[in-house]
Design goal:
Elements: E1 2-10, H1 34-45, H2 51-58, E2 63-65, E3 69-72, E4 75-76, E5 78-79, E6 84-87, E7 97-98, E8 117-119, E9 124-128, E10 131-135, E11 139-148, E12 153-165, E13 170-177, H3 183-193, E14 195-198, E15 209-214, E16 229-234, E17 240-241, E18 247-248, E19 260-262, E20 271-274, E21 277-278, E22 283-284, E23 288-291, E24 296-301, E25 311-312, E26 323-326, E27 333-334, E28 340-341, E29 344-346, H4 362-367, H5 369-397, H6 408-425, H7 429-438, E30 440-443, E31 446-449, H8 457-463, H9 467-476, H10 483-503
Parallel strand pairs: 10-29
Antiparallel strand pairs: 1-13, 1-15, 2-13, 3-4, 3-13, 5-9, 6-7, 6-8, 9-10, 11-12, 14-15, 16-24, 16-26, 17-18, 19-24, 20-23, 21-22, 25-26, 27-28, 30-31
Helix pairs in contact: 1-3, 5-10, 6-10
């Protein structure tokens, strides 16, 4: 089997809805299903190749377009295993157990009561050197409105919301191709996938632009069984049919590619159901009922050899369904500590984000003034968005240090109003810092503080609890072009919040 590996960089926000409905709360997936990449290849190749070649590439299951998961350096992350449990009132990063190896009656706290365990369900982790490094997929919710071209305004009663995956994230995915597929078809698929493409919803608007390139990343390999149990981890979603041709949530061990009997008491299975949208027929297909990624099957080992590599099982393998990993190391447990996980879950180390290639190449920006104007407008909008985020973060984190009891709240609201007035008159960051913190006046031979926050009735209150330093740090961290906008907005928000606190709201 040949495996082509790719990196998918999000150039804009991407909408990948959890279902095909258009009414109600629409949440976005935190990964990109393989059907999106199958659609990219089919859209470019389906009409240009023979029906026989199209059947091999897109319908036979011999070419499998895998799901794209968040990237960490050269590792593809995985959904947190459902077999990982952590004690209530703690976090998964403090203590984790692997449920098939955990025995409740053997685990007691100091007061004699056993742990109350909660299941890990959300998030992706890159498993490396006995650590599971969390990969956060940030999302944004936006309210949109349908547009009436005749009246050139928004349509009445046509508002809707979109949740999207934030841009600048990188994902890894694979295309697994059986050896019997001709090399020329593999090359066609690779050429169709690589480049700038669109995925998800609202691709004709502001969403869905991605850049795909070849990338030889690392996958989590299958391992050896621990004891007489075989643990099968669902890397992707799984769909099976029973002997009557109906969807089932209880596949056999043979359908999972191993010999033996599934221990359903120790297995941890989560399920899903959705109806895929077929754009060609403009209708929904039959409901798909399956097992969610991250689920863990526990099989009592049989006589046959357990596969040494991950493989695909079940239905819809061409769309990335069915990938499983056998006995991965991150599901190993310490037998001396009642099933405590050998891997420790940790937060992502802070580092600079990998730069995503620019949407518009520099040579085109120099050649076409309109593109240059649009690029500058986008940069300005991004900076303003950062300003609003900085203001909201300040109000949320440092705002509590400005709220006092009783009449002092209203006094602080007035002081924020004065700061807003000063910011409106100062055109540069230097002038603003001078008026608020650094201005001095001469009294005889003595130089005295004369800035708004360093003398008079305001000085004592702003020195308390480090309030003055908090505001100064906020201003210094804003770029000089947008410092006036930032301080004006911050002062307005803080004044409103102080008044609300004073009213008891």
């Amino acid at each position: 089997m040949k495996t082509l590996k790719f990196k998918c960089s999000l150039l804009t926000d991407v909408i990948i809805n959890q279902n095909a409905a258009t009414v109600g709360n629409q949440a976005s997936l935190d990964f990109i299903p393989g059907s999106n990449f199958l659609g990219i290849a089919a859209g470019k190749l389906y009409e240009s190749v023979s029906p026989e070649d199209a059947a091999v590439m897109f319908h036979s299951g011999k070419v499998r377009f895998g799901d794209a998961h968040p990237a960490y350096d050269s590792l593809r992350s995985l959904r947190v295993p459902s077999a990982m449990f952590y004690p209530k009132l703690m976090t998964p990063k403090e203590m984790c157990f692997i449920s098939p190896y955990y025995e409740r009656e053997k685990d007691t706290l100091q007061d004699g009561h056993p742990y109350q365990l909660k299941q890990c369900r959300n998030g992706f982790y890159a498993f490396l050197d006995n650590h599971g490094i969390e990969q956060k997929v940030e999302k944004t919710f936006a309210i949109k409105s349908a547009y009436d071209a005749n009246t050139r305004r928004s349509k009445d009663k046509q508002m809707y919301g979109y949740q999207s995956i934030d841009k600048d994230l990188n994902f890894f995915f694979e295309i697994a191709i059986d050896d019997e597929v001709p090399d020329n078809l593999s090359s066609l698929i690779k050429d169709a996938i690589v480049g700038t493409n669109c995925v998800g919803r609202s691709r004709t608007a502001q969403y869905g632009l991605v850049s795909i390139s070849m990338c030889d990343y690392e996958d989590v390999p299958s391992g050896n069984a621990q004891g007489d149990l075989v643990l099968i981890y669902a890397d992707s979603r799984l769909i099976f049919l029973d002997e009557y041709g109906l969807p089932t949530f209880q596949p056999t061990a043979q359908q999972l590619g191993v010999d033996g009997k599934i221990d359903w008491f120790k297995s941890q299975i989560r399920t899903f159901q959705y109806a895929p949208w077929n754009s060609t027929r403009q209708s929904r297909d039959m409901d798909r009922c399956g097992i969610e990624k991250g689920s863990v099957f526990v099989v009592k080992k049989g006589t046959k050899h357990v596969p040494a590599e991950s493989q695909y099982v079940g239905l819809y393998q061409n769309e990335g369904f069915g990938k499983v990993i056998y006995n991965p190391d991150f599901l190993k447990a310490d037998s001396n500590e009642n099933g405590k996980a050998l891997f420790t879950l940790v937060d992502l180390p802070k580092k600079e984000k990998e730069k995503v290639p620019p949407i518009i190449p520099n040579d085109l920006l120099r050649k076409y003034p309109l593109l240059n104007f649009l690029e500058n407008s986008k940069k300005k909008e991004d900076e303003i968005t950062k300003v609003y985020k900085a203001v909201n973060d300040f109000v949320k984190k440092e705002g509590k240090y400005f709220f006092l009891q009783g009449q002092a709240d209203e006094a602080f609201a007035s002081q924020w109003g004065k700061i807003r007035s000063i910011a409106m008159q100062c055109k540069t960051k230097g002038e603003l810092l001078m008026e608020l913190f650094d201005k001095r006046r001469m009294k005889g031979q003595e130089s005295l503080p004369d800035a708004y926050l360093t003398h008079g009735v305001a000085e004592e209150k702003w020195e308390e609890r480090g309030r003055k330093d908090m505001l100064k740090d906020f201003i210094e961290n804003i770029t000089k072009e947008y410092v006036q906008l930032a301080v004006i907005n911050l002062a307005a928000e803080m004044a409103k919040k102080c008044r609300r606190e004073n009213d008891g709201r």
